[in-house]
Specification:
Blueprint: H1 3-34, H2 36-44, H3 51-69, H4 71-89, H5 94-106, H6 116-122, H7 129-156, H8 178-192, H9 197-221, H10 223-242, H11 244-252, H12 255-269, H13 271-278, H14 286-295, H15 305-316, H16 323-344
């Protein structure tokens, strides 16, 4: 393959995922400004609920937001709510803090837009999101269940603090409007369209520009960051297409080896560049590749962009995230989730 053809193919593979994620991030930011996430969190953190019940409910909300609006949206907007809920309940922050990012990663197998790696690996299949959903449902549910149960078990073993601090950011009624409706519209578009990138991008940019204004839209989408990541993905995809040895190596891997290799490479390099490299040619076991790319980042904080977003949000809110504690909490859950998810795959 000539360099020009390799570059063209790499760009054709990469731009739709980035356009879709930009749209979902914009919708998520507008929905947050409209109060959707605070409204949902208040329902979960109802008066009289135990910290463990609140954690379980917030983890479920985290999984739902991840599936519909992308895991980066979930970590950016639900990490604060989970911290506020823990502080308001007088509960230890750690299960809530680490649970927000670990559950987001674990839940990112359900729909194509939940994780950029899903779109990079399977974007060439030209199938609607409903097909992806049907094929990945068992693996996704098992991974989320294992992770959620592990986090709830951690909370059960963690004593509460004495006293409480009011979670004022969860208080007060918030109106729901067009941005909330846009969440549902984008979910339908992802499920029914083989190529939903441009419609979702248009919906996201439109509702965010109306709800947030120009400056807010730019902050929500982070166009420079997405552009830099797009350039990186295209460059790596071009290299992979020119380097035949990588294609032969990926094709030689078994399903279990594919999961393990993707997880290990994600921790070393980050799952986005690994996805661009390993999916440049159709892999023999694409869904096993996704299991490693999506769940492997729970092994270490270096594995995904969502962890970087989570780290920045947590520090801004006065929490003290730890690289070591991330792995101590996440690695056992990641291994267990990858085992059950890979076992559930068919082909």
């Amino acid at each position: 393959m000539s360099l020009g053809a390799a570059l063209h193919d790499a760009f054709a593979q990469a731009w739709p995922p980035f356009a879709l994620v930009a749209g979902l991030l914009a919708v998520g930011a507008a929905a947050d400004a409209e109060g959707l996430f605070r409204w949902a969190a208040r329902i979960v953190a109802r008066p009289g609920a135990s910290p463990v019940a609140v954690l379980a409910g917030l983890l479920t909300l985290d999984a739902a937001v991840t599936a519909v609006l992308n895991l980066d949206t979930a970590t950016a907007f639900l990490t604060p709510l989970m911290l506020y809920a823990a502080r308001g309940l007088g509960a230890r922050e750690a299960p809530f803090l680490y649970g927000s990012v670990l559950m987001a990663n674990a839940s990112s197998l359900l729909l194509p837009g939940a994780n950029l790696t899903n779109l990079l690996v399977l974007g060439g299949e030209e199938a609607p999101g409903s097909t992806f959903f049907a094929r990945m449902l068992p693996a996704s549910l098992l991974a989320a269940a294992v992770t959620g149960l592990g986090l709830v078990g951690w909370a059960l073993r963690t004593p509460s603090l004495e006293g409480t601090r009011a979670a004022t950011p969860l208080a007060g009624p918030e109106p729901l409007g067009p941005a909330t409706a846009a969440v549902g519209v984008c979910a339908v578009l992802v499920l029914v369209l083989p190529q939903p990138a441009l419609p979702v991008l248009a919906a996201g940019l439109g509702v965010a520009a109306w709800r947030l204004g120009r400056a807010g839209l730019v902050r929500a989408v982070g166009p420079l960051t997405l552009l830099a990541l797009l350039v990186l993905a295209v460059a790596l995809g071009t290299v992979a297409r020119e380097w035949g040895g990588l294609e032969r190596w990926v094709a030689s891997l078994t399903r279990w080896e594919t999961t393990g290799a993707a997880a290990a490479a994600s921790v070393v390099v980050n799952n986005l560049p690994v996805a661009a490299l390993l999916s440049a040619h159709a892999p023999a076991h694409p869904r096993a590749l996704l299991v490693g790319l999506d769940l492997g980042p729970n092994l270490a904080v270096t594995g995904s962009l969502s962890a970087l977003i989570w780290w920045r949000v947590a520090r801004r809110l006065g929490a003290a995230p730890s690289i070591v504690r991330y792995s101590l909490a996440g690695a056992p859950l990641a291994v267990a989730a990858m085992v059950v998810a890979t076992f559930s795959l068919r082909g």
